[in-house]
Description:
Residues 464-637 form the NB-ARC domain. There is one protein chain. The strands form 12 sheets. The chain has a 19-stranded parallel β-sheet. Strands 8-11-12-7-13 form a 5-stranded parallel β-sheet, sandwiched between helices. It is built from 38 helices and 47 strands. The longest helix has 55 residues, at 2-56.
Amino acid sequence: MDNIKWVMDIVTDVVPKVKKYVSYQIHHNHYVNEFKDMQTKLKRRRQDVEQELRTQLKQPRKIAKKEVKAWLKEADQETAEKVAEDLIYKGGPFTYIFSSRELDERTQSLEEGIFKQGEKYTSAGESLVVDTPSIEYWATVFEERQEQLKLRQKDIEAKLETQLMQPGKIASMEVKDWLKKVSQQIPIKVEDLINQGGCSSLSNLRRKIEELKQIFEQGENYTNDSQGLVIDDHSIKGVSQLVDECRGRDDIQDQILEWLKGGECQETLTLLSSKKTKFDILKFQKRIASSLGLELKPEDHENENKPAGLISQRKLDKRTQSLTEGIFKQGEKYTSAGESLVLDTPSIEYWATAFEEKQERLKHQKEDIEEILKTQCMQLGKIARKEVEEWLEKAGQQIGIKVEGLINQGECSSSTNLKKNIEELKQILEEGKEFTNAGVSLVIDDHSIKGVPLLVKECRGRDDIQDQILEWLKGDEVTRIAVSGMGGVGKTTIMKQAHNQLLKESKFNKIIWVKVSRDFDIIVQQKKKFDILKFQKRIASSLELKLEPEDHDNETKLAGLISQKLRQGNSLLILDDVWQQFCLEDVGIPILDGNNGCKVVLTTRLQDVARGMECEVVMVSPLPANEASALFWEKVGSDVFSDGKIKRDIEPFVKKILQKCDGVPLAIVTVAKSMRGKLLPRHWKLALSEFSKFESIIDCLKFSYECLESQCQQCFLYCALYPEDHEILKEELIEYWIEEGLIYKEGKTREAMNWKGHDIVDKLVDNCLLQSVKNIDNQECVSMHDLLREMALEVSQFFVKAGIALEKLPEEDEWRDCLKVSLMRNHIKEIPSSMPSLKCPMLTTLLLSNNNISTIPEALFEHMLGLKILDISHNLELSRLPSSVSKLEKLTTLLLGNCGFLEEVPSLSNLVGLKKLDLSWTSIEELPQGLNMLTNLKYLSLGGRLSETLDEQLQNLSKLQHLLANAYPDAETKYKWETIGIWGKLQKLEKLELGYLDNLNMVFGEVGAIAESAPLPAGTFSSLQYISVIECDKIKMLFSVRWLGYLQKLQTIEVTYCWQMEEIIGSESEEGEKVTLPNLESLRLGSLPQLKSIYNGSLICDSIKKIKIFNCKNIESAFWSGFNPLPNLEYLCLFELQSLKCVFDEESLGLSPLVPPTSFFPLKEIEVLDCHQLKKVFSSGWLLHYFQSLETIKVENCPKMEELISSSAHEEGKVTLPQLQSLKLIELPQLKSIYSSSGVFICDSIQSLIIYKCEKLKRIPLNFHLLDNVQSSHPPSLKKIRVYPKEWWESLAWDHPNAKDNL
């Protein structure tokens, strides 16, 4: 019974389970069958698509679409039997529940996904194929990929080269491997891949394209700014650091070294960590995360483990973010409906035009860079940077390529050639932008010389001091010297003379002069401190160190680099006018050790500074009485010094005046210059009465100031508004003087005031109150001795904190009662909105230029109602001007130029006294309200993004003298003048400058506009002297001939970079009438590729003195028919005139050899460069009879030039140029003669002869004097001969056998 019960229990238990299992099995089989049915349907559809594809592929040159092939592959995978087997797992009923659900989902997915997708491939008319790309197509793609890879290789190599300049770094292995792979792919020629049948060639090309694509994408990682390409070079341990001597710490240092070398260090660290003071790991992690640019979540800040993972994942996160925000987001637009992903294939003509346009732009960019380089190389001791030379060479090669040479194969290959060269041109243009930026130096110090001689005046009575300094510098005992003494005593002069003397000797490899002054003062917690970092950058620049971006703010790193550089030789560093002591070791200046290191000399007024910097001090005392007297008599002038009676009469006064000068050379010279021409004793007695009141050197300098006329005094004081030792541009200074009313006189022209300003500058320089200097761009400047500046500030009511690195405005109390305030060239970023309106009722001038100001409070100017001059120019971040400016009713000058982000200017309607307004290079789109009410405006500069006509705004500005209208090259600027009549209102206009106005067709209006409108009033343009037009792309002529009657005062015309310009003066008939420009003195035309003539008729310009024409490819003659400027022409420069055949010929000049010259032309200088069709300069020797004033002839890079001066039947066999001083013939490969094969060239004033790469020239026909009819002698004036190559010089034939030996 028990057994039966047991069996029944089992049956009772098992049977339901079996039933349930069977139920599950039946249910599951249903889903299996559904899935297999779907597989079968998909298989049939796949077969249908394959059949249709095979049919369509029978068409010639067809291949399957990529999407069709992908669908077939996926369908093949889904219909495979193993898929079903994988899903039907026989593991028990509960497994079937899961499998059944999955089968159902999979079946539904197949039906709605791939099965439905395949439906369109079976519909009628659906194309499953595309045209097979030609071999030419794949060849083009391959070459484009190669070119892209080449550019990326260049970028990465340049970046690697920069990073390798860091000491102790080598290239990482993966970068080396990548560059190796690139170097293997670049040389592959497309012809080598196309060497089999079509299929094999296609396969080769596509495979290689894929390889190039992978390498290119791999290289993308190395182009990221944050990606380092170098690793530490473990073959060296590190870079030594400069450090002061450490006394009394030997035991501590020995203990540290013992621990570091031994094995007890870990035990010591463990012991330290057990104490209460522990290393804060979390804080350290936060510092590292901050350095890496990581932003930690709030919950991460207290978790020591989390930042570690975040730091290690930084690179991966950055890459993911880059993909998300970059290419992934970019691809979104390509999936939107209606977005076209294709465009028409450009024709060969399109690419040819694009190539020539890019070539033209590169040519102009090259000219600009060459002009800048030429100017900067005029500085002594400067040569072009290597990268600039390389860029010019590359640009020259590209400019020389002819488009016809690229179109010499089939269409595909020609397009490829053109596109490749266009990309190269684009890259070179982009590289060239750096060299045209303002302030960028294209030159470096010439290391073939150790330094540049400094301009220095004679230094009396200082021989013993200079000998002492030189003795110490040449010896080994003294390494630091301080030349100390009161201001004006001659410290700088002594060191300039020592500097120049040491240049002639071999003691030092390099001598560096740095003017320190107050340039390196910074305010830290209301205390002055020496700016070590700024000083390091100045030294690094002098040493031409190339710094990584991260090095610029790292004092320790800079110190190591400077030290490393200075230890490479024996250097001398001269620091002029030091006011604060600082640690030389902190800067990185190593003490001279043997033949390596640096000696330092500094000049300072402060002995505390000298002693604090551990220098041997040389005291410079005032001049002794005899030397002071000799210096005074020398400077007072020969009219006083040479007349014995006058000298005796005034000598007693001189002695007493010299006592007050106290032997200070600056005071002696300045006072002497102020007394020049004073010959009567009463003049000197009066001067002495003034001197008797003086108590200091500053008082003596005041005497020289007080001897000036009132106008010169005010102009002199104005210079003190600039930073100490600043190089002040003469033109800028004179503009300020004019706007201040210092040289203003009613009725005077602006040109007359400008010349008056130059006269005042010359007077101040002549009186030793200013020094004439040139800046890095070779521009004329003046500077002011710091003692004279100190005196000027004492005399004036000026508040000046210029160029001292201020970061905020000074307190109001400091400048409340001042007349003029200068805060220019500081670091002021913003003026807080909380700052109240400054109450400065006496303030007339406020200079805030060259700061970083971004915001100005609305009420700042409310209580400056006496303000006349407000200069806020060169504050790039400033976006709006406060409304309180509108209340400055006495304002005469408002300067906002180069505030690049400035968009808003308040109404100017109340500023009726305004005379000068500068809005150039701002982002203003609409002219300020009330501009047309500024009836006293004389100077208006507009520019940036204006988009309106000017007629209404200009019609009331009848006093306007100077109008500038410029636009950003990329701006859609539309401003212009709609009516001719506007010019009748501007009768006082003297100067008109227009630039980058793409909408302008003609300067003054269309041809015929005058006839259609009412006649212009008498006096229109009666003052206009100067017209300049730059890069106005649509303009075809400067003005119509009808305007000439109004332009009789015109003196200067400059037209450059106007691509459509065809003629300067437009005629209205085939043969223009005879017209004149009687006062035209200067003509400059450049980069006018369509220019055909100046004027089609006869143009008389008898006053013209200077002509420069460059890059005008259609110009065939320097002097057009009817245009003869020679009566007064002094300078002629012809540059890049590709069609020019001859410069001077009798036909164009209207001269005949049969008529003897009755007058001579005053031409002094002629320059001819890069005229590739030019074969001669003078068509015959007899023409030179008209050019007896010629002083300089320069001919360069004219590849077809055969002779400088042609000979004719009327020749005498010799020509004479009695005034010729310089003859330069450079790179004239076809030049065979200077003047005929046997003629003589007489030029007895010749000083310089330069002949370079003229290797077909076999004879130099210079006239050599015969001594005793046997011995020859070169012209006595000849000082310099430079020739190349030497072998050519040796092979020259000479008329006299010993002629060469006498040169």
